[in-house]
Amino acid sequence: MEFLKPIIQRIDKELSQLDLPQNPASLYDPQRYILSTGGKRFRPALTLMACGLCGEDPEKALPAALAVEMLHNFTLIHDDMMDQADSRRSFATVHKKWDTSVAILSGDSLYTEALWQLQNLDPAIDFRAMNRCFLEGIRAVCEGQALDMEFETRNDVRLGEYITMIQGKTGGLISAALQMGGIAAGCGADRLAKLHHLGMSLGIGFQMQDDWLDVVADQTKFGKQTGGDIREGKKTCILLSAMERCNKEEIIWLQNCLEKKPMPDEDVLDIIGLFERTGALEETKNEFLGYYRQALDDLDAFDPSSHKEDLTRLLETLMMRDY
Amino acid sequence: MEFLKPIIQRIDKELSQLDLPQNPASLYDPQRYILSTGGKRFRPALTLMACGLCGEDPEKALPAALAVEMLHNFTLIHDDMMDQADSRRSFATVHKKWDTSVAILSGDSLYTEALWQLQNLDPAIDFRAMNRCFLEGIRAVCEGQALDMEFETRNDVRLGEYITMIQGKTGGLISAALQMGGIAAGCGADRLAKLHHLGMSLGIGFQMQDDWLDVVADQTKFGKQTGGDIREGKKTCILLSAMERCNKEEIIWLQNCLEKKPMPDEDVLDIIGLFERTGALEETKNEFLGYYRQALDDLDAFDPSSHKEDLTRLLETLMMRDY
Description:
The structure is a homodimer.
Chain A: H1 5-16, H2 25-36, H3 42-53, H4 62-82, E1 87-88, E2 91-92, H5 94-97, H6 100-117, H7 127-152, H8 159-184, H9 189-216, H10 219-222, H11 228-232, H12 237-243, H13 248-258, H14 265-277, H15 280-299, H16 306-320
Antiparallel strand pairs in A: 1-2
């Protein structure tokens, strides 16, 4: 997304110039490390664009954008421990490169440094509202992650519960990122509610699309093995949607397949066949496209500007992505 | 400490009435659990007393006091994981009662809920200053904990570095607790600086005294085995002070002893003998008494009040404790 480059570069520059102390090295080195491993910088870009969308210079929202990105990286350090992941963005995860104690503590500290960024906001900005919005986002992310973990040991998860989970886990911080841009611009409650809704729609749509791409994407473009979620027995929205459309026999067959580790390739293909046959695949596509359309509708409420054009382009590009 | 009872009861009542959600249960049950296991409620009591000391109704500082106590309990959840501790306050630790993923995430969430308490402060209170002071305290605690962990694998820790470590790990939050009471009362920079210094002196004195009591206390009163730190090979201020006074031969003997797991009782007694002979024990006592006296001196700057009397009594009671 070429048009986003200047924004991403602005964020990367600020992140590389953060004045994190040198010592204790075991506390701050892991933070510098994870922030240097890249990532799409998608959330802080939304903060800057939302500030512009609401008629202010995006620079005003820069401390909030940094807070959002640092918070996101803190959640990655702790999530990777919970998921026992060895690598992220092609780099060793913090608990692998150091150890679990370092990962717990440097994560806590990165959370603290994220909050600290808000202290750098212009005094004219409503600090209390900004802090509240950020905390609401973090709370939603924690609740979503807890639900996700609870789902792992449950066999009766409903599609509606899944939506609630991704609303928190994915939607929470995206929605906060947008609203924080709005608060930096001095927006009133009406426009903040629009930004909140936009963020939730985008978050849910994006995550459902991710589940969908796992089944249909060209694996050379997607960068992951097609059907990876199926092999892992993940409760994606497609699986849950299919299960709500299956008869008893099919459910028993499906649960039987999901217990096989590793799952044979032919079972993966059969499950994809079931996803197609039940209409779960098609339905999921319609669902996520609907969420993207809602997000685009939310944008309509804002006055025309280059920032609005950028956000529209971003949403349309994401909506059409095939990887 | 009978005179503190009304304050502690006030805090306990508020903590038991926190409106933490019921779900996700894996997120909020561990938080309710650790907050219900008691603890001295020493830090939040300081916040309320400091607010009274500065001439305001202590009730004004209640949200800040709750934030401090909740933050403290969050650090316990994560510290117990790093220390691989099985129990705390005679209850199973969170990662033992649930698991490590639950402990990481419910800790993160308790940190978030602690920050959230500040949103309940009276709008007339300087929210931004309160938030800043709290974050400074948390940052100090994280840095102190990181140093403490780094010390475990080092054989060349100096006494001065140890003081820096406990300034952060113990002094950071005590100092923030007092200052937050002052901020709730609308104190200026001068009195806040006094409260900061008071908190640091108290934190350092209290921790050095803890190290000292580990060696000299009557184990039936102290509730821990005498010499427990020696057996664990902990780098306490007495050990570091003794090592700075030993000759080469004694250091080699000492390091040899400390490597024995489990350490024979006669070695523990010999090490205590060395602590006495080198004067490290006496010196540590003088040091911590000096810190308590500094804390009492800091109190002098404040106008007479019942809160000042309570704080003086608290400091004197702690100073004389033998357990």
